[in-house]
Amino acid sequence: MKILAIGDVVGGIGCRFLREKLPGLKKEYGIDLVIANGENSADGNGLTPASAHFLFDSGVQVITTGNHAFRRRESYPFYEEEECLLRPANFPGAAPGLGVCVYDMGRIQVAVINLMGVVYLEPLDNPFKKLDEILRDPDLPKLKIVDFHAEATGEKRALGFDFDGKVTAIFGTHTHVQTADACILPGGTGYITDAGMTGTIDSVLGVKPELAIEKQRSHMPVRFDLAAGPCKLEGVLFDADEKTGLCKDVKRIQIFENIVQRSQK
Fold first, then answer.
1. Which one of the listed residues 53, 68, 149, 174 is annotated catalytic?
2. DSSP-derived secondary structure for 110-127
3. 182: closest CA among 253, 252, 238?
4. Is the pLDDT of residue 151 over 80?
5. How far is CA 4 from the centre of its chain?
6. Domains of the chain (ranges plus CATH)?
7. Which of 21, 34, 145, 223 is the most exposed place for a label (fewest CB within 10 A)?
């Protein structure tokens, strides 16, 4: 079974590029399930019902989020209404929505689990203990995919090795820079520290570079506007074994817009 996990989709420009490229990806690789981190899918940060609907209508079946999950208050009711829109499971129980969904494809089911790291981020419940708790559910299907939205690479890799052989795949999100460590861990779990970003190439995590530079130089509040220009789509493709619940192959995905024109400059 082929499962595509798409890195953080940034703003309307990232959403539109995903919509343009996803049908071709599905056809080329025979993709069965698409998961995308959409916590920055709305212009100006966060997620709205409109940006979530856009991703669903573009062929994404499950949307995960992270520290910006609740940036936009208008999204709160939608988390309660849409079971395939997840927020990190280690948020307090009073937060809208859920951190786990089971996507039913008829012949097979896939559990998608959303967690958030606590190193350099908010002091949520321990993600390691939370995943222990989630995996104790006997009704979870054999295939289990984890989006670990975290800042620290050490925290991400530690979670990978701790749950190696217990879940099908773990992909990191949040840093918006795709890492080169896609692999199958010794116990059979597919892994990548960060799936990357879907949005503007010439940017700082999707933001206009000059604004990010101003913030770093001045340490004063700066309104971040999204950069424009050619885009990229980044993610990771997991080939899951339906019988064992483990991973057979992992492949990094990168699609760049106008890459030929850029190379000729």
1. 68
2. EEEEEEE--TTS---S-H
3. 252
4. yes
5. 10
6. 2-263 (3.60.21.10)
7. 223
